[in-house]
Every structure is written in C-alpha cells, then in structure tokens.
Amino acid sequence: MKVNSWRDDSFMDRLHYFLKEKGDLDCQEMIPVKKNVFKVYAESQWWIVKCYHSHAIKIWSLFLQIEDQKNFVSFVPFPNGERWIKDSLGQYWCLSPFIEGRKLNYTYHEDRLAAINLLQDFHDTAKGLPIKQTKTKPFLQKSTERYRRFLRTKDIFTQHQATLFYQNIVKQTRDILERMEKLKWRKIEEKANRKRFIIHGDNAGHNFIRNQDGIYLFDFDLIQYAPYEYEWIQLAQRFLFEGLDQFEDLFQYPVFQSFKGQSYFYYGTIFPSDLFREWLHFLRKNPSQAQVSSYLQKFQQQWHQRQKFFELATKYGKINHYSIKERNQDMKKQVEHLTQWLQNQVKEAGVNGLLVGISGGIDSAVVAHLIKRAFPDDSLGVIMPCKSHSDDQKAAEKVVESSGIKSMTIDLTETHEVLFSTVQSQLNEANEWNEAQDRLADANLRARLRMSTLYTLATNYGYLVTGTDNAAEWYTGYFTKFGDGGVDLVPLLHFTKGEVRELAKELGVPDEIIHKAPSAGLWEGQTDENEMGTTYAKIDQYIQGEPVPEQDRNTIENMHKRTAHKRELPKSPPKF
C-alpha cells in the first residue's frame, strides 16, 4: 500500500481495502489519530491500527512472553491470525485494542504515583526477557545530538532579540554536558544489556490511560535494553516540566529516593533535553513569527524555573567512584583540561593573556598556578592590600614564588579610605548613614575597588580577569556582587572546596596555603566558616547530594535563596 496523504479519502479507501484484504479486518469507521495511527471500528468494537517500520517485531517478541498482563495494552493478531500485515513499502501494520479513558496528568499527585507504579510493574515483568533488540543510541550521544539540533536554531533567537537568553542556555547546557561526559554511561548501559533491563522509553502522560477499570500502559515503540535510570530521568523531567515546583519534591517518591546522590540521575535530569524536545517539536509545526515570539516568552519562564533545579541538583564536577590513584590521575587531567580551556577562552576573546587578584588564599593560589601554566609569558598576579593583615600579604607573596607568576602590588588602603569616608560624610550630613551596615559596606567597597583595579590593569595589558570563586562559594552566594564576582572567567566554579585542595596539591601550592583557614580578610579574625555559620565540608556534601545535619542544611539553603540575585543576569522588562 502506497502512502501519499494519510488523511485524504483515496488513502483511507486504500487503507480500508488493505486491512480487509491482508488482515480480514472489515472496518465500518476509520478516524485518523496522527500520522500512520488510526482508530477503527470493526468486529463490534474500536481498535487502534498503527504502521511501523521495524519496531513491530521487537514489540511482538516481548508481548508473546507477557500475554497475561492486562494493564499493558499489547498487540493482538488480526482476525485472520496474522500478527502484522506488511504493505508494499515494507511497513508493518499492527492491531491493538482501543482503551477508553483519560490520559494521565502529571500535575496531579495521584497520576504521578500511578505512572511510577505501572512503570515499576513493567520493569519487574519484563526484566530478563529476550527481545529482538534494535540498536539504540547511547544516552550521552542522544543528549549531545539534541543539544546540537538546538544550537542550529540560534538565528531564531537572534531574530526575536533573545540572543542573551540563547547564550545563557548554551553556557549552562555546555557546562552540564561537560560534566556528563566524565561519567561512565557506557558501563551502566553494558550492565543493563547484560542483565536485560527493559525500559518503556516513552513515559509521556498520553501513554497511560486511566478509566474506571484501572490504569493502562501502551505505545511500546521505544522499549529497549537500558539502565532503569534512563526511565526515571525522563519521568523526573516530565514531572518537573508539568507538575512539580522544586527538584527536591521528586524525593517524596521512593523510586527517586533510591537515586538521591547518584550522578547519572542528577546530571541526566538537569540536562534540559525535555525543553529542547518541546522547542524543536514546536518549530517543526512551521509556526508564525507571532507564535514563535509567544513561545519564546514561555520558554524563558520555563528556563527561569529550571535554574533552581540546576543550582540545587548540579554536583559541580564531582569526581565519582575513583580510587586515590585514579583520583590523582584525574586531577592531572583536570589541570590539563583547565589549562586548555583557559587558552581557548583567551584565543576566542582575541586578547593576550590572563590576570588574577592574589589574596593569599587557596582559591587564588590555584588560579595563579593555572594561568601561569596556560600563559607563561602573559599572566599577571596582582596583590592588592587594603586594610589587610600583613600575614595575608606574606601568603600572597608565597603564592607568587611557588607559581613563578609575574606579579604587581597595588596598595588600595588610602584609595579606600578616601572614597569610603567621602560617601560616609555625605550620608552623615543627610542623617542617612546606616551604622548597622558600616562593616559590610566597608568590606564590599574593598572587593569592588579590587575589581576596578584588575579591570584597569586588564585593559592596559589586553588580558581577561580570572575569578577565584569555587562551587561552594557560588552556591551559597559567598562573594561580593561586582566585586570578586565581577570577572570574565571562573575556572573553579564547578569544583568543591575539597576538590580545589586536590587541585592545589597537584599544582604545587605550598602546604601552608592549602591548610590555611579560609578567610576573605574582611576584618580582624574573620573566617569564612564563622561568618557563614557552617563549614565548607558541609557545603561540599550538600551540593554533592549527600546528607548533612538539618541545621547546616537550613543555613545553606537560606544562603542560597537569599543570594539568588547574585547568580542571575541583570533583570530587564519584557519587550513592549
């Protein structure tokens, strides 16, 4: 049977004749559902007739082994006993009962629970069964390909003045993808193949039907041997896309609790393949410019909602499942990767090199060593005392010595005093000086003066300003907006404090710097951990998905919420 237009009368007539001749199915009524799917009335009941290229054999091979599962809507033979009927194009046509009811809606808790229970039932029933497996693409390859298809839509964002939005998506997704590439996806896929773990593969709400008799699962086109994680990753994305407001809400369901802290689940879920899928599906409909503009507004809302999922779930490049030897080998690779990345950033920006402000702490020490490696002759370490303790300057000088970086010292103490006292005097004259904020305003001004100094030097040398914030500081917002947070590059953003220490050891940072109590040097005796009310170790554990005491968790989460504005681009109103 030749397929021209699957909706026109001539095609419907041919299909009627084909089903009667090849399958002895005499249809009294035929309704197109979607391309190559038809609802037909024959033999005193409604059926679904669907056309396949090759999946039919695979699906039949499964259902011949689980015939007694009434909640799984399987194929049935045609009236003449044929399991499928083949047309002149080599396509397979299959028959299954039509189930009346409503599709599951993931905005409802009971429907989310129903989908989980039925999928678990399917996994248990199908596990270990041999199926006529067709070759499927690895998860990482599919994710990468979907991302590349999204990249090809850049012009649409540009046409609708959404270039910054597009760039934000690309940066975030590329970062996640780079971390995903570190995981051993092939290993868990090989295990699933070996143990014959079978997943459904398409758990959209419309593939479940609820009626007075129960809940039914159908459309088994994408069954495959694959890790169960892949099923739950897809379902988690649908829950977040359609119903849940918080990533943590997933863990009210036991099936997701079992994956808490598991890298494959976290990375797979936060990778925005579902948003890309919906966007690309929308574009295939050839929408008007007005429709695209409207969808982009919706897309931005969804992306903004997704940011908190990214920030909470991202494990910031944690190195998993490694022995000490493997960890050390990986740290060498991490250093090589960061060095290459820094070189690429300078090349793409068309500048000469990099500079960093050296405080005497471990983070700036690591960055100083990295940029010296990346640009031996075009890197600069800048020491900027500003009402600083002499020990900090001595530590900074040790970093310069250990890294071999060219350095410069610019004392900002007097500049700070003049500017701060000028502002303070003006506010005092107006009787508006807020004395309670005196210490914080003083400290933040120092950070912003350092930023201004670095950018002045960067302009002079044609360098990029390299930041020193790590994952723990970024997540909790423990940095000054437009101070130490005002930089061009942030190479340590995906490394926990513990991982920064491992990098420091690999790079040859002096031990006294590595073991020095973290401090921003804001005032006498100040330490980061005392000011935050928790420890870097606890923050590292939290962002890696590990349990922490309730008090620490509350402190970390409150800091994260309170500082959300620091991690966002400046807000602008929607275009009028």
TrEMBL record:
InterPro entries: Aminoglycoside_PTrfase, Kinase-like_dom_sf, NAD/GMP_synthase, NAD_synthase, NH(3)-dep_NAD(+)_synth, Rossmann-like_a/b/a_fold. Pfam families: APH, NAD_synthase. PANTHER family: GLUTAMINE-DEPENDENT NAD(+) SYNTHETASE (PTHR23090:SF9), NH 3 /GLUTAMINE-DEPENDENT NAD + SYNTHETASE (PTHR23090). It comes from the Bacteria. This is NH(3)-dependent NAD(+) synthetase. Residues 550-570 have a biased composition (Basic and acidic residues). The keyword ATP-binding applies.
